[in-house]
Design goal:
279 residues, 24% strand
Length: 279
């Protein structure tokens, strides 16, 4: 029987959106399917993600320290700490403090520096907030920016395609110099393929690509990074974790298109959780 200490657990700092398949409503079932205990720290509560025309939003910044204080009293620690969408500079500092407080020597810290997409920062991400994100990235063992976020972190001008592989490695290297051991730049377009650029701690670069399928959908980044985080705390090499994550996202996109799931509803990963459970 698996004991409390034998089973891996990850503290996940992210928002909770009730509808639309993103953030914690994606992370919790994905980690559970991979036999990881998910311990959520909500940054905000939304009725649905902000890609819909209307939504309810409740900021949890002021509540987070009180929430986390109880974990300190319980003397908790985690095999992984995984940070997703953050809504303010104050939340970035809260996450940094959490990493310092709850990490063990072998704790894996995964930072998904969610700041924007399609070449633009999200409305809530001011230049100052983006600058603070660079500081948080420095505390990560693995960081998983998409191409837009990698450009923001390194001060580059975004372009949708036409990147030379040497340029991508240089960009990943600049992010690595901020502090993280390993970097994954996700969602780079190379013709009819989507490529994930992996830079390992020894400086070795990998280009892991798969055939582009279906439409882009919200929440796929959460699916991807959740699988990478789970594999990391299990001790699986990063390249293998990225391949597993990319393959699963691809399957989910295909299935969602087959079922005519509206784009704003994300991917119907629930239909394929058995794939992760068997892995």
């Amino acid at each position: 029987m698996t004991s409390e200490k034998q089973q891996k657990k990850i503290a996940v700092i992210n928002d909770l959106s009730g509808y639309g398949r993103c953030s914690l409503t994606v992370v919790i079932p994905i980690l559970s399917a991979l036999k990881i205990q998910c311990c959520p720290v909500p940054t905000s509560i939304l009725s649905n993600h902000t890609g819909f025309p209307t939504y309810f939003f409740d900021d949890y910044t002021e509540k987070m320290p009180k929430y986390i204080e109880q974990w300190k009293k319980l003397d908790l620690s985690f095999d992984g700490i995984y940070s997703g969408f953050l809504g303010s500079e104050a939340q970035i500092q809260i996450v940094i403090d959490m990493i310092k407080e709850f990490s063990l020597p072998d704790t894996k810290v995964i930072i998904d520096p969610i700041m924007g997409d399609h070449g633009k920062a999200y409305e809530t991400y001011t230049p100052l907030l983006c600058s603070r994100m660079k500081e948080l990235v420095g505390y990560g063992d693995i960081v998983t920016p998409n191409l837009t976020e990698a450009c923001i972190l390194t001060g580059r001008e975004y372009r949708k395609d036409g990147w030379k592989r040497a340029e991508l490695i240089r960009m990943a290297s600049e992010i690595q110099q901020m502090g993280p051991e390993e970097v994954v730049i996700t969602g780079v377009t190379e013709g009819g393929f989507i490529t994930n650029v992996v830079l390992q701690k020894d400086g070795t670069g990998h280009f892991l690509r798969s055939l582009r399928v279906g439409r882009e959908r919200p929440g796929t980044g959460d699916v991807f990074s959740s699988i990478v985080a789970a594999q990391a705390v299990k001790g699986v090499p990063l390249t293998a974790g990225v391949k597993k994550a990319a393959d699963f996202v691809k399957r989910c996109i295909i299935k969602s298109d087959q079922l005519n799931v509206p784009r704003e509803n994300g991917v119907c990963f629930e239909e394929l959780l058995s794939v992760l459970i068997r892995s």
